[in-house]
Amino acid sequence: MTDEQYMRQALQEAQQAYDTGEVPVGAIVVMQNRIIGRGHNQVELLTDSTAHAEIIALTAAFNYLGAKYLPEATLYVTVEPCLMCAGALHWSKISRIVWGTDDEKNGHRKHTGSHNPFHPKTTLTSGILGNECAALMKDFFKARR
Amino acid sequence: MTDEQYMRQALQEAQQAYDTGEVPVGAIVVMQNRIIGRGHNQVELLTDSTAHAEIIALTAAFNYLGAKYLPEATLYVTVEPCLMCAGALHWSKISRIVWGTDDEKNGHRKHTGSHNPFHPKTTLTSGILGNECAALMKDFFKARR
User: Fold this and answer.
1) Helices of type H across chain A
2) What is the CA radius of gyration of chain B?
3) Is the ipTM above a cut-off of 0.85?
4) Exposed e or buried b per residue across B53-64, where buried means at least 16 C-beta atoms within 10 angstroms of its C-beta
5) Most-buried pick from A80, A88, A129, B117 (CB within 10 A)?
6) What is the dihedral of CA B11, B12, B15, B19, to 10 degrees?
7) In what order do the strands lie in the sheet with A34-40?
8) Which DSSP helix (H) or strand (E) runs through A76?
């Protein structure tokens, strides 16, 4: 499957968040062409401001593999990871991170600047289905104002 | 209770981690002189490289209160929070963070430099029982070499 196809899976997760009144971010973890973890924001459901899509997808992948590191996996997430999620991805030693749209307000780069917080071997790709990922966020916040 | 007394509670958590072969970091969350969350590293037990003391203590506090923010709480942790935990503490809007010993290798300041990643209202204190917190870490890693 292509990056776009996997990002569409992450977008499905984001849509589930949207449909339940959560900030619409979705994530999946892929290893050897298999989805081994999925997640979407559940901050409201769990009354936990740290229940982000990436954290939930990572935890699912750790549990699935019974492993504490994911050196052969890729995380797809619809929105640029925040500082917490960047830190979690660092610890996971994940091979690759692909995000859809940048997040100027809460993206990790606001805090880390030009410093790369990820594992040195982790590669980054951004802008996959970026417009669709951004549109879902914009719709959500527009509807709330 | 004083900062030292609360940090001793966090050290008890760290000792539990030590005794089960986990990197000895412990944390507690305090609100109105009550401990509302406790945690210690469970990376090995949960095979999850993100199962840090602070995350577990925060989740416990969110669950206890049924609230997604902790604006009246203080987190005590034996070691300087990493980038992930700093991000989680940012989202929690916690009032105050107290840590024991600095962590030059994995502390959040390695990644954020002079930029403060926490909520603007969050106050920071460090060095409470710092020597004891550091000694537990040193013993742990010495025994593993």
Assistant:
1) 3-19, 53-65, 83-92, 109-112, 130-144
2) 14
3) yes
4) bbbbbbbbbbee
5) A88
6) -170
7) A34-40, A26-31, A73-79, A96-101, A123-126
8) strand A73-79
| Phi, psi (degrees; rounded to nearest 5) at B110 | -65, -30
pLDDT, chain A, mean: 96
Name the minimum distance, in Å, from the CA of A8 to any CA of chain B. 26
Give B19→chain A minimum CA distance, Å: 20
CB B25 within 8 A of CB A67: no
Both tokens of A144, joined, read: 């709330």
Reduce the DSSP state of residue B53 to 3 states and report it. Answer: helix
CA distance A64 to A69: 12
3 state DSSP class of B20: coil
Amino acid sitting at position A41: N
Tokens of A116: 């790369």
**How far from the centroid of its chain's Cα atoms is residue A113's Cα?**
19
pLDDT confidence bin for B20, thresholds 50/70/90? very high
Size of interface A-B (CB pairs under 8 A): 108
Q: Tell me the residue length of chain B.
A: 145
- φ and ψ of B98, to 5 deg: -125, 120
pTM of the predicted protein model: 0.95
